[in-house]
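hey so i finally got around to running the thing on that chain from the lab meeting. sorry it took forever, my laptop kept dying and i had to restart like 3 times. anyway pasting the input first so we r on the same page abt which one it is
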Amino acid sequence: MRTSRLRTVHPVLWAGWVALAAGSVLCVVGWYGVSGERFAERQLPYLASCTVPGAALIISGAVLLAHGRSSIAAARVEELYGLLVAAGPDDAGQRTAETGQASLAPLAVSGELRMVPGGTLWHRADCPLVAGKAEAVPVDSKLVASGELGPCPICEPAEETD
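ok and heres what got predicted. didnt touch it at all, straight out
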């Protein structure tokens, strides 16, 4: 699935390649003309009419190629973002009848609270951040009351502890 923007970038790439080729040809012609002349005053016309414009075309071709490549990358990112947005709410959860908004299932629903020693957050026991970790211990209510531990933003545990 290609977007229309991807198709419009190809002329920029072709223009870049043509500018590079034309610049290379001009530089070769300029070098050949300069190499056949012994005196500097006879070499200057070749430098002015071939080599300098050839170098300018090479630089502009390189800029066009870089711009075309970045435009292609940006178009692909936009295309992927569009696919992600299209697949997002319909696949991730169910829509509620009243609001039309996606209602996502909570990540963790356990009533048991856990913490990792040395950590700054407390979690539900089935929170993905502590689930399966042997070092996770039950929450000490004194740490929560003193404000040393805050609720996890992922599993959003209840404010009161057991």
